[in-house]
Amino acid sequence: MADQPRIAAVIDIGSTAIRLVVAQMGSDGEWTRLDRAAMPVNLGRDVFLTGSLSRESMQQATTILTGYCELVRGWEVPVDSIRVVATSAIREAKNKDTFVDRINMRTGLKIEVIEGIEANHLTFLAVQHAVAPMKAEFSRGNALIMEVGGGTTEMMLLHRGRMAAAHSLRIGTVRVAQQIQPGLSETDRMDQLIRDNVRVTVDRLETEMKFDRIRHFVAVGGDARLVARAVGTKEEDHYWVISRDRFDTFLTGLRDREVEELVRDLEISYSEADSLIPALLIYRLFFNATAAQTVIFPDVSIREGVLLSLADEGNWSVEQQFAEQIVTSARNLAR
Fold this sequence. Notes:
Elements: E1 6-13, E2 17-25, E3 31-40, H1 43-50, H2 55-74, E4 82-86, H3 88-92, H4 96-107, E5 111-113, H5 116-130, H6 135-138, E6 142-148, E7 153-159, E8 162-169, H7 173-179, H8 186-205, E9 214-220, H9 222-231, E10 233-236, E11 239-243, H10 244-254, H11 259-266, H12 270-289, E12 294-298, H13 302-311, H14 316-334
Parallel strand pairs: 1-4, 4-5, 6-9, 9-12
Antiparallel strand pairs: 1-2, 2-3, 6-7, 7-8, 10-11, 11-12
Helix pairs in contact: 2-4, 5-13, 7-12, 8-12, 10-12, 11-12
């Protein structure tokens, strides 16, 4: 029956990790997570430094994806309900076609290398769903949605709940780490580098929307969720809220800690600890440029956006929304 729940799986090949979610989807667009997994990879470090994926990283990714295939088979997910997306690291790799072909031959998985604007759209779908209880508030003011990744920072500016601009910025945790030079302490140098990048970006984006008129700040991504779970207040099923002061205090307390301390105190992996500080510095600098008094942390990612797109295939309103986003981005680029 068309209205019966179905099981779907989404694999997200990112710059620093390959992540999987398996979910049972209802006819109302809601989902229940059945399983999830995340394994660190060095894809971004390869590509952003040399321009290509190394043989070792491709083998590492192949091994992880082979394991995910076994997991997905265990859940009896239909082939047409499995979607694999790859973002900036694969998109920028000179040998991406070799990688995509090799994964397909070894695992049978078909990888979709998505552009920044589609990544923005999928993230927007997930956030829109997660913060649905705040729809009325969003419709009365401007909002900034951000996701800091290893290679890029995806950014969406919303005017009264509708997309006003969308950008994929070439600043991410892996790129920042690679640009750190000796001299100042690593955190101070990182902070300075990010400040320079953010200042230029905010000046450019101010032509599209004044940052001091942005009332809602939404932080998406694994690093953001770590903060939310540590010090956030759970408002609804799908999101947390943290005040400006509490977010500042939390980041200040982390700044000078060693990776080993972060791993121990926050109970996270070394890969997560490596990206946490640069990601939070990027979030904070953009957040401080706005008039928002709280950070909203949805418990979603691009993977949940893909699940929603699977549930809404053929939905005219969703397709129209994506078309409007493309037109808006094209106008901003032309301007």
